[in-house]
Amino acid sequence: MLGTGTSMPSLRRGSSSCLLTTKRQKILIDIGPAVVRRLLECGHSVTDIDAVAVTHFHVDHTADLSTFLFACNYGKEVRTKPLTIIGGPGVRRFYSGLNKIYRWVAPKSYNLSIVTMKRDVLQLDGLAIETFPVNHNRESIGIRVQERRAVAFTGDTAHSKSLVKLAAGVDLLVAECSFPFRAMKGHLNLEALDRIVREARPKRVILTHLDPEWDDFKGVLHAPYLLGEDGMTVSF
Ligand SMILES: [Zn+2]
Ligand SMILES: [Zn+2]
Questions:
Q1: What distance in Å separates the CA atoms of residue 110 and residue 53, rounded to the nearest whole number?
Q2: Which ligand number lies closest to the CA of residue 60?
Q3: I want to staple 1 with a disulfide (CB 3.0 to 4.6 A). Which of 48, 107, 225, 232 is the partner?
Q4: What is the pTM assigned to this prediction?
């Protein structure tokens, strides 16, 4: 868990990002502000990453994409490994917008593929990446990755049938739970997440996208829930 926070500035939690590592691949799920630095703190570099998947285009999920791409061109090691960027409808337009503002982000020494997904499956070097539309922004997707085990990332979302399908029976669900109790349109709280967990039955659930209100949470979370923290590693 590179960042377990939201758009609210917090010293405890960086903006949204997870790094999924498999035997052959490293995939970044969301790339909010300062995630590139967090990658280094966790012992990785921008040139290691095979794919960056963004669940939607809000700033707290994408701000460091330009930092990442810039570093691929002008970092200590120049990137040669191909890079895949995955996003919902509009991801090409989003990337070309970045390119207009920051022309230095266009790849200099490697191949870049941009893949638009909504309700789709992509095979990436033996990994099945499946996406489901979720209820937040027009382009919002939840991402499920399956090798021997399955992990799903909700991105920001409210409840939907599609979200339940995304999470159905996974070994690990990385779920947004913006607030413990407060209800906000397009987001989940503990009660709303509990409903999804009862319907989808994931084996373990890590809570992320945690507003600073969580800092005052005095309750106890029971299995299958685990409160996410920046720098936390979960093997499954
Ligand atoms: Zn967010
Ligand atoms: Zn959002």
A1: 18
A2: 1
A3: 232
A4: 0.97
In this structure, is residue 9 part of a structural domain?
Answer: no
pLDDT band, residue 203 (cuts 50/70/90): very high
Residue 10 within any structural domain of the chain: no
Task: Tell whether the model's pLDDT for residue 70 goes beyond 90.
Answer: yes
Q: Shortest CA distance to 95 belongs to which of 112, 110, 82, 109?
A: 112
Give the distance (Å) from ligand 2 centre to CA of residue 186.
8
Q: What is the Cα–Cα distance from 113 to 12, expressed in whole angstroms?
A: 34
Quote the percentage of the chain above a pLDDT of 90: 95
- Residue 178 counted as domain residue: yes
Q: How far apart are CA 128 and CA 131, in angstroms?
A: 10
The answer as to whether 232 is a domain residue is no
User: From ligand 2's centre to the CA of 114, what distance in Å?
Assistant: 21
Question: How close is the Cα of 209 to the center of ligand 1, in Å?
Answer: 6
Reduce the DSSP state of residue 76 to 3 states and report it.
coil
Helix 91-101 / helix 65-74 crossing angle, nearest 10 deg:
60
- Ramachandran region, residue 34 (left: φ > 0; alpha: ψ -120 to 50; beta: rest): left
* Confidence band of 77 (pLDDT split at 50, 70, 90): confident
| 121: CATH | 3.60.15.10
* C-alpha 220: how far from chain center: 25
pLDDT at 75: 78
- Beta partners for residue 64, in sequence order: none
Q: Which ligand ends up closest to the CA of 16? A: 1
Strands annotated E in 67-203: 83-87, 112-116, 120-124, 127-133, 141-146, 150-153, 172-176
